[in-house]
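Project outcomes to date are best conveyed with an example. Our students and postdoctoral researchers have been running inverse folding experiments weekly, and each run begins with a structure described purely in tokens. The record below, which covers 265 residues, was selected by the lab manager from last quarter's runs and is presented without edits.
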């Protein structure tokens, strides 16, 4: 995953986006997995544990669930949030170099993580390596940024503030939506697509400042901004204003993603 995620410092702020839109996608992704998949389950890029919670509720209690993330801060936060949940094994791990044996799992799940891999083909290859033949691979990626107005508003604010700063051109999470690209990546990693679907969930009504705070303080953008000497409060004010212009106050909008179901071949 990108180095910025390894220095993640705001998981508690990122987690506030869960009830706003992330948990809806988590529930949708996890319900696509059988309660008894063909083997143990690995989650890649578990973040604050939003998908992990849903997975543990979905799966048979006797089935092993391993939740991984590159960011120790995220992993520690997720572990603390789900401290009372039994049957979750937490591991710090890079999606491009998973510390597991070949064909160790019957299912691999990743909620909004594959977009951040420096080499996406390699990351999908690792997911395939640790999956048994016939195993299930479920992941989702954000649709184009124009279909996610909250993300577009945020990106436009940052890009206006830092017009020639490549680190602040934060559109990377929204460039993996193309079905043709996804199918090529899957085929290159020896997966057979079983289903690909675009899914939209409504956002709001919600305080736009809550979204702005999660987008700035809850992501590696906060470290990049502080490195440039910019007060985070100022940026949050600007993003809140942009969100209000785009969706009102309280904010109403949408979040849209592409959900991929595949089988290891």
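After processing, the design step wrote out the following sequence:
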């Amino acid at each position: 995953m990108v180095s910025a995620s390894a220095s993640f410092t705001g998981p508690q702020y990122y987690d506030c986006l869960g009830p706003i839109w992330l948990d809806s996608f988590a529930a949708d992704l996890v319900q696509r997995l059988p309660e008894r998949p063909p083997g143990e389950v690995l989650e890649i890029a578990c973040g604050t544990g939003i998908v992990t919670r849903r997975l543990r509720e979905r799966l048979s209690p006797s089935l092993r669930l391993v939740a991984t993330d590159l960011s120790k801060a995220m992993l520690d936060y997720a572990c603390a949030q789900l401290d009372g949940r039994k049957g979750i094994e937490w591991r710090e791990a890079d999606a491009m170099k998973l510390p597991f044996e070949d064909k160790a799992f019957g299912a691999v799940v990743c909620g909004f993580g594959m977009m951040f891999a420096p080499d996406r083909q390699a990351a999908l290859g690792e997911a395939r390596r640790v999956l048994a033949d016939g195993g299930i691979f479920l992941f989702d990626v954000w649709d184009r940024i124009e279909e996610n107005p909250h993300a577009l508003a945020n990106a436009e604010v940052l890009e206006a503030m830092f017009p020639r700063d490549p680190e602040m051109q934060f559109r990377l999470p929204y460039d993996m939506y193309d079905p043709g690209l996804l199918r090529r990546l899957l085929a290159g990693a020896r997966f057979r697509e079983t289903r690909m679907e675009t899914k939209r969930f409504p956002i709001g009504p919600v305080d736009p400042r809550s979204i702005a705070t999660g987008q700035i303080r809850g992501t590696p953008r906060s470290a990049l901004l502080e490195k440039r000497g910019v007060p985070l409060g100022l940026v949050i004010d600007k993003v809140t204003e942009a969100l209000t212009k785009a969706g009102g106050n309280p904010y109403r909008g949408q979040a849209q993603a592409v959900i991929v179901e595949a089988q290891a071949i």
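The first helix runs from residue 3 to 6. The chain has eleven helices and seven strands. The training component of this project remains on track.
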